[in-house]
Amino acid sequence: MGVINLHKIQIKNFGPIKDFKADIKDCFVFIGPQGSGKSTISKAIYFFKSLKNDMLKYFIESIEKEEKITGIEPYEKIIINKFIEYWGAYDSYKGVTLKYEYKNNCFITIKADKDSDKYITPLINVEFLKKYEKITNIVNNYIIKEKNSDALVVESQKGVFIENIKSKIEMLFDDDSELLFIPAGRSLAATISEQLSELKSKNIDIFIKEFIDKITEYKKTFTVSIDEIVIKKEKTTGTIVNKELINLAKNIMTNIIKGEFRVENNEEKIIIQNGKDKKKIKLNYSSSGQQESIWILNILTLLLIENRRTFIVIEEPEAHLHPEAQKQIVEMIFLIANINNNQVIITTHSPYILASINNLMYAHKVGEKDKRVEEIIDRNLWLNHMKMETYFIESGKAEDIIDREYQMIRNEKIDSVSSIINEEYDFLYNLEEE
């Protein structure tokens, strides 16, 4: 999968975005002012990629209920409901287009309904529909067989059959990756996840809710150290975990949170080693930077250990972090991006994030010719500019800001505010000197 068979997205007249087209490469970075549409684009890509999970869930429910699948309409309703859950209802969808092409001319388009622009409708093209119908025929034949077979025999075979259907859906969507969305505002979710999980789902943003669910799922893993998690993984699966990558990740995590994360008696804590003494700080009493970054770091470390192919969106990884820590969290993110054909999307406001990414791309360029680069920047962090897309989003449009000749983000876009500040300073200085 990876970058060979590129997916494509097109967005027109949706939210703040007037027109956006892109191939889906392994790494995306969106920078721009607040409300410019960075999240709109990243959520749209995530939305279309996540539809494979909804299809599988729908098929499993049909199998469990022994109800045959009739046409594409029920799945289209699932798409509509998910769209509204992500973005809410609009007064008018006139002129709106969201189109995602998977591969082999299979695509889904979201547009205003032909009878009323107050509603949206998904348009599924013929090639996609043909493949969908082939899978539904297999599922329906299984359901017929299920009704006429011994219940114990059917139950014993169900898991294998569902895995087979999952594989066929992944082929249709050209995507076998796990999906993760780490939203902005995650510190609140991280520190009071237990209380938030008890609230009614309708009161919580869908991305925060999914993030809380992930935290709840992963918390039990961190009752022991990362080294112990690795040992358990190797013992239970017989696989060998890449210790070099794990040690690199551990060092980055320690540098950012200044300690080690642990869950004790269901309480999240940061353990700080001070000589022979250990100081334990509850996460909700830790710094805002630690709270914002801890579950990015935890999740990325687990992905390294599990070695699972992943598509991950991270909003504002720089939140509440010192510039040096911003550099380190970029290194952690692209450590993950460089394995398993993983795909990463970052939305950011920070010039330090862009500058750090630039260094990793520059390291790749220079390091191919000079091995001394490895003395400063670990080879596992180098970033090939061909895997990378970086867009500045403003006034509804996107500007590609990578200079392909130099294989780097254009310097004037990294910190455009500095030139404004310098111009104001020069103006004031000249006034003073008159």
**Percentage of β-strand residues:** 15-25%
Mean pLDDT: 89
Could you state the order of secondary-structure elements as H and E?
Answer: EEEHHEEEHHEHHHHHEEEHEHEHEEEEHH
**Distinct helical segment count:** 14
- Which overall shape is indicated by the principal axes computed on the Cα atoms? globular
Largest sheet, described in full?
6 strands, mixed
Distance N to C terminus: 64 Å
Determine the oligomeric state from the structure: single chain
Strand line-up across the major sheet: 7-11-12-3-13-14
Helix coverage percent: 40-55%
Contiguous uncertain segments of 5+ residues = none
Fold and architecture overview:
The protein is an alpha/beta fold and 434 residues long. The protein has 14 helices and 16 strands. The strands form 4 sheets. The protein has a 6-stranded mixed β-sheet with strand order 7-11-12-3-13-14, with helices on both faces. A hairpin with a 2-residue loop joins β13 and β14. α1 (38-65) packs antiparallel against α2, α9 (243-257) packs antiparallel against α10 (288-306) and α11 packs across α12.
